[in-house]
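Task card 7
Instruction: Convert sequence to structure tokens.
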Amino acid sequence: MNGSNYECFCQSGYDLSADRKTCQDIDECTEENGGCTHICSNFVGGFNCSCNDGFQLMNDKKGCKPCPSGTWGKDCQGDCSCLDINTECNETTGCAECPEGYTGGDCHDDIDECVTSDPCDKHATCSNTIGTFKCICDAGFTQYNATVCQGTHMLYTVMVVIYGVKFVHDTSSIP
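Output:
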């Protein structure tokens, strides 16, 4: 201040307003994306750069580089621990193909087949297990195969005699 004259200054990240008395935030992202390679996020008094999934911020805090081998996702925080069961790790999504019964970026998330597809027949209850499922037959029914149960009352042999020839029909194979 010099007599009745004064001059205002603003901190970094702010510009002096037209009234020459107040400071207003500068949106650094409006000019050349703030110098960010991927994503610029403005906040009052400054900005941050960040990267798309599959990339991580470089030391200059503006540039982005692809995830190193064996990592994936936001800031490359995901670990492709699926490499013991799958040879491909996608930088954005993680493990490219999980074994049957598993899902997720690291293939360690169990799929609950009982919720997603209910594979058991109407005479069984589905029970989820890690990596697979089991069908538990209702009372009065026995396991025919992995997903089908048959009534125990159907387990008998029918013998028919036609013109002196015996025909034997085993109904235990009928679901």
